[in-house]
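Record minuted for completeness.

…
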Amino acid sequence: MKGRGLIALGFLILSVYAAYGQQEALYSQYIFNLYALNPAYAGARDALSVNGSYRAQWVGFEGAPSTQNFNIHAPLRNENMAVGLYFQNDQIGARRASHMAFAYAYSLRLDKDARRKINFGLQAGAISYQYDWDALDYQNPGDPVAFSTDGNFWLPSFDFGVMYIAPKAYLGLSATGLQNSRLYSSVSDDARLSTFLNLQAGYIHSLSDQIDIKPFGLVRHELGGPVQVDLGLSTLLMNHLWLGAIYRHDFGMVFSAQVVTSQSLVIGYAYDWAINGLRAAQSATHEVYLGIDLSLFKADKVGVRYF
């Protein structure tokens, strides 16, 4: 199937979902940080790719989420293999979750020059959960959740992904939280980590030598739970400035801008604008992003950062 056909199929699947919520850490500039969504993207840049982001969500809420992400991935000398390292720190109220994982990806070439390929990725690691119960004022001193949960513990993490990658298109599906580990158990509940399915799709269309447009989408589905849908469009001007917007169903809009200072360095900012019930209770969500590609074995292949 050609690249456009695959992407059209991806957006057809995207269109049949409705969004109800989201529980995992969320990013607004994932289009430049696809490895954070899918371990199969490891090595896809044919370079040592380093990415970092900081997200302050729902500014104005006490105990609002704050998330920091750093990852690095690169192909091996064996051109069909790649590895990656992933670090994330996510804090919500009295809970802090620190996630560290290692990924391995393998590519199946669909043409002689490996311009089109299908990647498979496996990721394994551990999540450290820390609860500062002393920072909370309890309305119910007998709360079974608070007093039955250890203040600090580790859980394993396992993720899987597959992705079609072409020079100007991608379509991927990943499953995160496959271990379904138990967070706590009490007389009233048995809480476990949920498994999430993430469907990603995007395509680059060149209007001229100076203008490219990029429609893209993301569906995140918690098995047995809610679904969240993003539909976005970005425009690249003169190979140096990305301007984009995302419609996030049941939430609002995301506006972003990324400056491409060279063919390998991207600096970005995103602003999440709520138009639902959250609007009156918080000022906004802000996210900054920095990504750079460093050539390894094929310096000529590090090109414009489309995604």
